[in-house]
């Protein structure tokens, strides 16, 4: 058989056969006087085995190891490892499909948010908030929550979203105060009032999320760069007020 014939017989391409020769998976057969390879039944059997092993998901290096072990012990080890890897992939796929089924249900019911897909915790939070108020600050708030939903570790994310549930009901008036600072400098006299209102809406637990220092880099700088100077000052002051309030409450509780 010529290379095209053995490739067609086994169901691979001539290019694959040449690649297997190059990697040493398939020995070079004898050549005819004209230089063409001449394949026999043993070559076809070996090529078919290479095809079956690759279809199982083995890499070509693993196939080489299997073919090099005459007693087949390596094949058992490799197949057991492959089976365990496929089981892990199945578990991941099942989890993704379950998540996708939930998202499809939300989408078909018209409840999938513009920020989606998001975690179940954030989806529940946004569903509880309802329609966005006509507020640029509210839009930024939802955008930063969607970003936090992705970058914050899962256990911390669940705690943060739980805390934000306590804020959702009283955020409307605060958004208005912060929107009014959109063109104001950091020393605007309205900053203190907006900060006090925001601090009043924030739960004590939010104080454990330390306000990052200016220039620290990362998410904090991205968030504050989106705010006007007076808005950034109000948010930082509010976080400081909550932290002070939480500390004083903890001290009184321990006395």
UniProtKB/TrEMBL annotation:
Give the keywords, sorted.
Answer: DNA-binding
Supply the Pfam families for this chain.
MerR
Give the matching Gene3D superfamilies: 1.10.1660.10
Residue span, HTH merR-type domain: 1-69
SMART domains attached to this UniProt entry:
HTH_MERR
**Known InterPro entries for this protein?**
DNA-bd_dom_put_sf (IPR009061), MerR-type_HTH_dom (IPR000551), MerR_fam (IPR047057)
Q: What is this protein called?
A: MerR family transcriptional regulator
**What's the source species for this entry?**
Streptomyces omiyaensis
Q: What is the lineage of its organism?
A: Bacteria, Bacillati, Actinomycetota, Actinomycetes, Kitasatosporales
